[in-house]
UniProtKB/TrEMBL annotation:
<dbReference type="Pfam" id="PF08450">
    <property type="entry name" value="SGL"/>
</dbReference>
<feature type="compositionally biased region" description="Low complexity">
    <location>
        <begin position="37"/>
        <end position="51"/>
    </location>
</feature>
<dbReference type="InterPro" id="IPR052988">
    <property type="entry name" value="Oryzine_lactonohydrolase"/>
</dbReference>
<dbReference type="InterPro" id="IPR013658">
    <property type="entry name" value="SGL"/>
</dbReference>
<feature type="region of interest" description="Disordered">
    <location>
        <begin position="1"/>
        <end position="87"/>
    </location>
</feature>
<dbReference type="InterPro" id="IPR011042">
    <property type="entry name" value="6-blade_b-propeller_TolB-like"/>
</dbReference>
<feature type="compositionally biased region" description="Basic and acidic residues">
    <location>
        <begin position="63"/>
        <end position="79"/>
    </location>
</feature>
<protein>
    <recommendedName>
        <fullName>SMP-30/Gluconolactonase/LRE-like region domain-containing protein</fullName>
    </recommendedName>
</protein>
<feature type="domain" description="SMP-30/Gluconolactonase/LRE-like region">
    <location>
        <begin position="211"/>
        <end position="325"/>
    </location>
</feature>
């Protein structure tokens, strides 16, 4: 059905022009206007008013009146250093908030936080954050986030949605919807449901592969878990690529990345079992490498609480894997799990090297790359400069390849996963909202490089 014309707004609340039209071909009968939202207020210790400190052992350093003083003069002269959507973070004041502030609770109205001046290159002169779709019916925008350039199409998998139909018993009366958005311009697109057996597969993470995409099939109580290939064009035919590890069933594959040698790497946590739609696990929670050319599948990493997102560095010498052990699965859709502050909410980096005789790759030199300060790191991607992006509880956080947090894109409600489009465009999944982030035009996603 054709939805009403309406005006989108930027993160500052200003309407875009012209308004865009969105066509929905799903079964909804609603024709409500979908209003874009600005990011919610977020804590920022650097902008909170100073409070007296009862301790007298060591005075706090004086606060810099100008937050831009920490940047070199040539950076301060750049017009985007004072962009209305950006805020420079005083890292020294932030690190000392316990000795100088009562609590870091001041409002944070700007969506782009700059922790290091190298983030200015990522942002470009005019970064933007726009809510394209705000759909209160269900969390349609959760995972995958696969952009297919030949058809200018974006594929997204939903979070779990209640399914009362009798044939949904094997998925504990839950379903996952695959949404396809075909773009004619950044703000003019159609929205469709992909007609394939997604209920049985419970699709989750995905990535580009050949002329279509790979989706992680979490499986059900009856259907096996594994990897499926889905054609990008209608009728979106699906093909099973892998559904067992030497005759032992996978748990519930979560995210996937493809190496330039054609091998497919994926994570396999036990979220499906915890959420009631998978049988009791018969394998540890591992990371795997699958070679479709030979059929070889082998485990390449272990010792995770909940292995989740996976990505290669641009040179493919480093593999980044997120651990979301801080949030365990919940069998109830109405009662989300309670985060544990003492479990992993971390990104680990591994060095990928090749065995000299067989030339087969393996992982070594595991190290902690980053620990997340808000939520957990879910989806993870790299740009062609080597910066690492992860969907977190406050939006998209960005580190340089050395593990330094250089910036954040603050998104109301957080971001579960995301993907790069063309020329600095990022599509961010916020459950019931889909966001478009406009970064600098020189930014290129590591998967597509466009």
């Amino acid at each position: 059905m054709i939805m009403n014309w309406h005006r989108q707004k930027t993160a500052d609340g200003n309407p875009l022009s012209p308004a865009h039209k969105v066509s929905f071909s799903d079964s909804s009968k609603s024709s409500e206007k979908r209003n874009s939202g600005r990011p919610s207020s977020r804590p920022s210790s650097s902008s909170n008013s100073r409070a007296g400190d009862s301790r007298t052992d060591s005075p706090a350093p004086p606060r810099r009146k100008d937050s831009q003083q920490r940047l070199p003069s040539h950076t301060r002269e750049k017009p985007w250093a004072s962009n209305r959507n950006t805020q420079l973070i005083d890292r020294q004041s932030e690190a000392l908030w316990q000795t100088t502030l009562t609590s870091p609770t001041s409002p944070q109205p700007k969506p782009f936080l700059i922790y290091h001046d190298s983030f200015l290159r990522v942002l470009g002169p005019n970064p933007t954050l726009t809510c394209l779709i705000d759909d209160p019916r269900a969390p349609y925008f959760h995972e995958a986030g696969v952009f297919h350039p030949p058809t200018n199409t974006l594929f997204i998998t939903s979070n779990q949605i209640p399914d009362p139909s009798p044939d949904a018993v094997s998925t504990a009366h839950k379903t996952i919807i695959i949404t396809k958005l075909e773009f004619f311009s950044p703000t003019d697109f159609t929205r469709d449901k992909v007609r394939c057996p997604e209920r049985n597969y419970m699709a989750n993470g995905g990535t580009n592969y050949r002329d279509g995409l790979i989706l992680c099939a979490q499986g059900s109580l009856r259907e096996p878990a594994g990897l499926i290939y889905m054609e990008a064009k209608r009728p979106h035919k699906t093909t099973n690529l892998l559904n067992n590890y030497h005759s032992r069933p996978f748990n519930s594959p979560n995210d996937v990345a493809v190496h330039s040698d054609g091998s497919i790497w994926f994570t396999d946590p036990i979220y499906g079992y915890e959420q009631g739609f998978r049988p009791k696990p018969q394998l540890p929670q591992l990371v795997y490498r699958f070679d479709p050319a030979t059929g070889d599948v082998r485990a390449v990493a272990d010792s995770f609480g909940r292995p989740n997102g996976i990505a290669f560095s641009p040179d493919e010498n480093t593999v980044y894997i997120t651990d979301t052990d801080s949030i365990h699965g919940s069998p109830s859709l109405s009662s989300p799990p309670t985060p544990s502050p003492t479990r992993a909410a971390s990104i680990y980096a591994f060095t990928l090297i090749h065995e000299p005789t067989t030339h087969l790759p393996y992982l070594t030199n595991r190290r902690l790359f980053a620990y997340i300060d808000n939520g957990v790191p879910d989806g993870i991607k790299c740009d062609t400069w080597g910066n690492v992006y992860a969907g977190c509880g406050d939006g998209i956080q960005v580190w340089n390849c050395g593990g330094m947090l250089i910036g954040k894109v603050m998104v109301e409600g957080g971001v579960s996963n995301f993907c790069f489009g063309r020329g600095g465009e990022v599509w961010a999944c916020g459950e019931r909202r889909l966001w478009r982030v406009g970064l600098g035009g020189e930014v290129r996603g590591g998967i597509l490089g466009i």
